[in-house]
Amino acid sequence: MSYSKLLFFLLFGLCSGLTEAQTNQYVIEGRVTYAASYNLGRWEGTNTSVRGTVRWNSQTGEASGQVCVELGRFDSGNALRDADARGVFDVNRFPQSCLDVERLVQTGEDAVLSGTLEISGTRRPVRISGKLTREGNTYRFAGGFNTSFSEWKLNPPSLLFLRVNDPLEVRLEARAVQR
Question: Which residues cross the membrane (predicted)?
């Protein structure tokens, strides 16, 4: 093989390898749901204000960007409970909770989304395990994690002798559309 053909194949291989490992940008929208309980029952609150932009390299798992939710928009079907939640989050001082995305690693449909989450002024690393499915240039993620009020330095709401239990279950459903 001549030197020029060898050089062509090397350059072609390098360029096609770079294309496969390309980082794409996605617009994120979705909802987050929490499930909580106390001694007399269990309920869920849902928030559809999940929005953000993320860059993701599906080959390496490297990601960057931010996904936020407006903390005052949780709806549990009970106005008093939702008002308590706004007080716990101190939404006047901290209107949003944001996840700084760092990695999204996929194995088949299983995926782990990692980053740093801020809630009411406290930042902590989180890992959200779930399923990631592709639909053309769009991805759907559904996953969750368990947490506690104390991890975020929050006081659980209480009424008389009833106090909200730990842990809380948090679920994220998101749609990522390639830009």
Answer: none
Domain-embedded: residue 50: yes
64 assigned to some structural domain: yes
Rounded Cα distance between 45 and 79, Å, is 11
Report the CATH number that the domain containing residue 92 is assigned in CATH.
2.40.128.110
For 114-160, write each residue's pLDDT tens digit: 999 999 999 999 999 999 999 988 999 999 999 999 999 999 887 77
Quick one: pLDDT band at residue 1, thresholds 50, 70, 90?
Answer: low
Both tokens assigned to 108: 């088949």
Closest CA to 146 of 129, 160, 132: 129
Range of the structural domain that residue 174 is part of: 23-178
Q: Encode the chain in three state secondary structure.
A: CCHHHHHHHHHHHHHHHHHHCCEEEEEEEEEEEEEEEECCEEEEEEEEEEEEEEEEECCCCEEEEEEEEEHHHCECCCHHHHHHHHHHHCCCCCCEEEEEEEEEEEECCEEEEEEEEEECCEEEEEEEEEEEEEECCEEEEEEEEEECCHHHCCCCCEECCEECCCCEEEEEEEEEEEC
Looking up tokens 């009970």 gives 78
- How many domains does the chain divide into? 1
